[in-house]
Write a structure and sequence with these properties.
Elements lengths: L1 E3 L6 H5 L12 E4 L3 H13 L4 E4 L12 E4 L6 E4 L4 E5 L4 H9 L15 H6 L7 H4 L6 E7 L5 E4 L4 H9 L5 E8 L5 E9 L4 H13 L5 E9 L14 E9 L4 H9 L4 E4 L2 E4 L16 E8 L4 H11 L8 E6 L3 H4 L13 E8 L5 H15 L3 E3 L11 H8 L2 H14 L9
Parallel strand pairs: 2-4, 3-4
Antiparallel strand pairs: 1-2, 5-6, 6-9, 7-8, 7-9, 10-12, 10-13, 10-14, 11-12, 11-16, 15-17, 15-18, 16-17
Helix pairs in contact: 7-9, 9-11
Bound molecules: flavin-adenine dinucleotide.
Organism: Amycolatopsis australiensis
Cofactor: FAD
Family: Belongs to the oxygen-dependent FAD-linked oxidoreductase family.
Length: about 425
């Protein structure tokens, strides 16, 4: 275990994460290597009246801390039990490591668009992955959680425990997870990739994708992203400098070409990357940026996606919008709507989630917030909720909790929170 304070060598590197728009200036950072290190750090924080925050990769950093930061990036153990089809991972593991380890046994995890995201932060947020319509949330497949609660006790929680329910979706505020055990699925390859369409075709492609995705089988997870691509030589020539519509596909069936035929016919396709690919290459489907940057993002789940809403999306987040926005619409439904497994906070009645993500520039986060605000105001009549994983850079955790959890879940989370963290040393719920 390494303990670092401001000004010491290694402090800045240990604090740095993927999200760079949120100031993170802990009084002390504990670079934990074991669950015992985490126990010691939590007890030290309690003795010194320090607030506690946790960071694995910084992809989901919302508020920075001036208290004690537990950095879990060295807790990188991955064990696969092929017969039981489960994985057990340490708190600092990223999805890429699990994907590689599971693939050796013909298995795959319920990972998301980016292999760089941390398994624990993702799963505690619910975990909306590439096979979510077929298998549900990653949180639904968790079998056991090792967690150091704010009293400094290392506990293993399993189905039936209130803490188990709270952690699967409630994310922060209940302790530090040191290890997670979860189910894997027998998947080795996908029909996946994307179709890129030109700026002028955005409105019609959005309409075709909306209608097509409504009748898609559960084996298909799909999203459409409106992306303002810069005019840079490293981007492929057909899409360079264009505001493209990027349809993303992850399909578990064998008849992919047949299934996407209506999309390929929607408008001239600028670039087509659809093919059968090993699950180990699933990160290429969305090709999320790998480099740290400052960003702000929010989302709304919606019960419909009518033509008026699509027009509002193009107006507020398409070409010519005042702030460059990556706008992603994901089809929900399937197993996500059935939700046979219990856990905190997921809008299982929604048909789509609309997410907006923008870089925070020199003029600050308020410009981005204002632009996103106009978009989501236009969608408000059909909005049914908000999903925790896609809220980025908002500083008030209690406010975020109020916006993402249904009232009954929020009330239950707060009772559990008070029981385990009466001093509110961990982030508020
Ligand atoms: C590029 C990108 C792609 C993404 N793709 C998806 C996607 O496809 N599907 C999806 O559902 N989400 C996705 N997300 C959202 C992501 O799941 C959340 O931001 C998640 O919280 C990130 O977890 P992390 O550990 O990587 O990040 P961190 O910032 O390190 O952690 C995020 C938060 O999780 C909590 N946390 C982390 N580790 C622990 C722990 N050991 N114990 C207790 N609390 C902990 C803390 O509150 C922490 O602030 C994406 C985010 C980005 C930036």
């Amino acid at each position: 275990m390494n303990i670092l304070r401001p000004g010491q060598d290694g402090y800045a590197d240990e604090v740095a994460g993927f999200q760079t728009s949120v100031a993170n200036t802990p009084a002390v950072v504990v670079a934990a290597e074991t669950a015992e290190d985490v126990v010691a750090a939590v007890k030290y924080a309690a003795e010194h009246g320090l607030r506690v925050a946790v960071q694995a990769t910084g992809h989901g950093l919302t508020e920075g801390t001036d208290g004690l930061l537990i950095s879990t990036r060295r807790m990188t153990g991955v064990e696969i039990d092929a017969a039981a089809r489960t994985a057990r991972v340490g708190a600092g593991v990223r999805w890429g490591a699990v994907i590689e380890a599971a693939a050796k046994h013909g298995l795959a995890p319920l990972s998301g668009s980016s292999p760089d995201v941390g398994v624990v932060g993702y799963t505690l947020s619910g975990g909306f992955g590439l096979m979510a319509r077929r298998y549900g949330r990653a949180a639904d497949h968790v079998r056991a959680i090792d967690v150091v609660t704010p009293d400094g006790e290392l506990r293993t929680v399993t189905p039936g425990a209130d803490l188990f329910w709270a952690l699967r979706g409630g994310r922060a505020g209940f302790g530090v997870v040191t290890a997670l055990e979860f189910g894997l699925v027998p998947v080795t390859e996908l029909y996946g990739g994307g179709l890129y369409f030109d700026t002028a075709d955005l409105p019609s492609v959005l309409r075709v994708w909306r209608t097509w995705s409504m009748t898609a089988p559960d084996e298909l997870s799909t999203s459409i992203a409106l992306i303002p691509l810069p005019d840079l030589p490293m981007l492929p020539e057909p899409v360079r400098g264009k505001h493209v519509a990027h349809v993303r596909i992850a399909y578990l069936g064998q008849d992919g070409d047949e299934l996407v035929a209506p999309l390929r016919a929607a408008a001239p396709v600028l670039m087509d990357t659809l093919k059968r690919l090993p699950f180990t290459e699933s990160g290429s489907i969305a090709s999320d940026p790998p480099h740290p940057h400052p960003y702000h993002g929010t989302n709304a789940t919606v019960s419909a996606l009518n033509d008026g809403m699509l027009a509002a999306i193009v107006e507020h987040a398409g070409p010519g919008a005042p702030v460059d926005t990556v706008l992603i619409i994901d089809r929900l439904g399937g197993e996500l709507a059935r939700r046979r497994v219990d856990g905190a906070g997921w809008d299982s009645g929604a048909e789509f989630v609309v997410r907006a993500l923008s870089m925070v520039g020199d003029d600050g986060v308020e410009t981005v917030r204002g632009a996103h605000g106009k978009l989501f105001e236009a969608l408000a009549p059909w909005s049914t909720g908000r999903l925790l994983p896609f809220v980025y850079g908002e500083h008030d955790p209690a406010e975020v909790a109020e916006s993402v959890f249904p009232p009954a879940d929020l009330a239950r989370l707060r009772v559990i929170k008070h029981r385990y963290d009466p001093a509110s040393a961990f982030p508020a719920v």
